[in-house]
Amino acid sequence: MSVNDTAHSDNSAWNRQVYHRLKLALSLGLRRQLFLAVCDDLHLRNQVAARLHSTLAYPIGQVLYQPSDAQENSTSAYPRLVTLRLNLNDPNPIVQINQWLSNYPPPVVGASKDTPGRPLPTPGFQIVGVEQLTKQPVATQRLFLHYLRLSEQYFSTQESSRFLESSLLLWLPRPWLSAIQQSAPHFWRCRTGVFVFAGEPTPTTHNSGYPERFSSSRGLDLGNSQESIVDESVKQAEVRAAVTELKFEENYDLQKQTQTNHIRKTEKTTLSMVDLLKASPQQQESITRSSNGNKDQSLSSLSHISSELTELVVATINTKTPEDTEDYWQPQQILFEIEELHIQDAAGEVLAEAYHRLGSLYRFRIEQGQSTLENLMVAIIAYQEAISYDEESPQLPDILNDLGTLYWMLYRTPPNSEEGQTYIEQAIEFYELALKLISPETHRETYARVQNNLGTAHGDLARFANSSQNWQQAVKAYSEALRYRTAEMDSLKYAACQNNLGTAYWHLGQYNQPVEYLKKAIAVYNLALIHYSPEQEPLKYGMIQNNIGTACWNLAQYEQPAENLQLAIDVYREALKYRTPANVPSACAATQNNLGTAYWHLANLSQTTKEARQKFLQLCISAYEEAIALAHSLKGISLSFDLLATYNNLGLAHYQLVTDNSFNGDKATRSQHLEASLENHLQALNGLNKQPEAYQTTFAYVVKTIRAFHNELGIQGQNLALSKVPSQLLPEILSKL
Prior knowledge:
Shape: globular
Oligomer: single chain
Number of helices: 28
Structural class: mainly alpha
Strand content: under 5%
């Protein structure tokens, strides 16, 4: 959603979803997280901020780090979320946070004669009151933005500061968000997530109602260099294809549902809301539906269950279709049972079992393909509640693994929001907690499953930060999984893990020691291939062959280019026996694209003969044409390679075929290839209007091709070329000829 959008068909439903995402992001307790919450309705802002404070002072997910009973009385009053109102006299959020931490440092727990103990985690902070700056002098507004520019260092460096150990939620109206984007761009780039609430702006008595906007101190300088090196264009396009084509198989495993034993939960006191907000939180609207009003209405009276969990359950019920009515009431029945158990002051293990049943019900729905945001969040909250009532259950490792996988799935569930990194980091934390509780010698299958999942999570985290280090961690996790997941136990899972390991090695090779890691990737892929029968598993067999081809192509850039490119071509052709247009047209198109690039590189090796060069360029053209034809047939289906880059690559191949000294075709054949070259470059150019740099490079290819028309076919050829160019491009093209 754009931060400038204000209208929604159902503001209440939208805001409820945004609130749950924001609450989940904050509840993870990760360090150096900067969240921006955008809300123009101050009454709504006050409601949400107060509710966040009241529910996150002791988040459910933190019970795993709960202090012992002996220490609880001295630490239970320390909050996990602190709300501060911006000091308008000196609007410096960092100073306010550090001052609070100086006055109320985290208590130390676990201290004894022999050990110094450790402080409790630093709380997160939410800051309100930025909207009041609109009533302040311009100098104060400038000072606030100046402080934000200075505070960028607290998020982007490893400086020693207590603030770096916590997260910050900054509440803003839209005008101030715009001002920050323009006047504090480095601070803006440090954001972890932006959460936009829908609502009308609250009227203000100030004349302007908007902060002063400042122009950026530096403009964007777009170069006009004309890249004419064919090799780099094709190589870059193929790297993108290779990265997206190397996909994980069996990304996650969910443990089958089992009975859980439980123990007593230690009660916690809740810190009251600091009197900083003008409006107190309002009671949530009653949840009613005309078709089942009585039962839905009674859910709003559940006082012992978190309102977040209740609302999410009701949201999943009210989105169900008539065909799903068989288990329509089951989640509600479990909630009523949990409420009754709370009233009866039931034993902790009984409560834990009830919450676990609720989580497992939604987990089953997720396994059936209903992995909606609401279903995932219900399962997560229910499982975390179950853990909070039974921290010593023998099933705890399996629950922690499932929680890790649920957070990983949350990252993969639309809308793909900016807090995806936060979800993956939480998944990794749960996987690592599970591994601490598992004996690999006695629970080999479970241990291997969690290690495999941990490797996948690190691979996804590499997209956001510390790519090389995360791929190294992925290699470590997959390798550890393979110590206990043998081919004799389950040959297909073993092969899938080997494929994952090969992909991790391939990615590592993009950062350092490419020859070593690419060779390891090829070796591991071949180990996986042994266990996939092309007759029984044709798609997986073809996928791994494609991966081997990509690794061989990549290795050819460093050593033995002719041998490795020929190997790549051989395995790509083998993959295409199983990645057919009928079975998997998108995968077939990707492999054809890869095959075309391998032929192009082989044609351009210095040791390639003139006759072989012409042959390889023809084969390159055929492969690219097949990839493009398949792509055109896949309307509405996303591709794993850059189609515009393929157009350019095909145009370059046609151009090189004709301009090569060994080409001996007649004028008609030359004209056909040059026309095809021009057509493909123009096709690419048409889709690159929003990519200035790529547009200029492609435009240079168009000019170069028109010059070739003149060189090969004379003035008539040039006129033919110009007749095929859109009229709006002619003035600029003619100026360059």
